[in-house]
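Weekly modeling sync, notes
Attendees: S.R. (lead), two postdocs, one rotation student

Agenda item 3: backlog of single-chain predictions. S.R. asked that every request posted to the team notebook include the full sequence so nobody has to chase files. The rotation student volunteered to paste the first one in as an example of the format we agreed on. Action items at the bottom.

Example entry:
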Amino acid sequence: MQEPAVARPGSPRWHARLFATPETRDTLDAVFALERELWSIADTQLDHGVAHIKLQWWHEEAGRLAQRQPRHPLTQALAARHATPADAETALLEYLRSVELDLARTTYESATELEHYLQYCAALQRLAAAALAPDADPQGLAAFATAVGRLVRSAEILRDLRQDAWDGRVYVPLDWLAAEGVDPAALREAEAPPGVARCLQRLASEARQHWAAESAAAPGADSLRGLRVLAALHLALIDRLEQAGFAVGLQRLEPGPLRSLWTAWRAARTPMETA
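Predicted structure, as returned to the notebook:
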């Protein structure tokens, strides 16, 4: 039987599913597909009015999820796996908040504002983790899942900096750019001024530090293997970008297929210590 295409072959999410335990793949399928579905609302090619209609529908769906009466196949799948519908509703609403910010092309004045956005982006990882490891310590599980989601989105922001800038989305805190004397418009340039690389290095360093701090006491459940692989691959992506001096405007920089396979395999075979 052919495996469902929930992610681009060779991508971090594809590897996460590949190395996940068989019994957890359906949950990851649902979460990754829901992430893709909601992310598409903020697509720059989508009519703004249509996007807001979709957002409203999903807000209503969150309420139905809380009542265990979801209509969408993806939320139906998650409702069947999540023991606490109110928490599932909260996670969905938080992720929708990140979609709203992207749709509005919100800029972030400071690292604090960007942090709020990253926390919203991690909501679906928290939803996934709760379904994958329902018996784990809730506080440690939430901290681990948030760290995964935050790391994933930080790596994507670094990788997609120039394209996002052309789409009118600037995620680098404006006070960081101002301190380096960089106009946000410079993020569109193929060869950005040196101050941009320094800002990206700062973002990368904060992503690593947050991951190291919050993942240290993560639950060691094997059911979380897919999320550990997802995090390891995005750490490898940050490493690759750093090695290239964050020259993200010149080419799409990603680890090669062999490096990705090795990184995923190693992460899958190295469970974290149980708190």
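Discussion: group reviewed the output briefly. DSSP finds 13 helices and no strands in the chain.
Action items: rotation student to repeat for the remaining queue; S.R. to check formatting next week.
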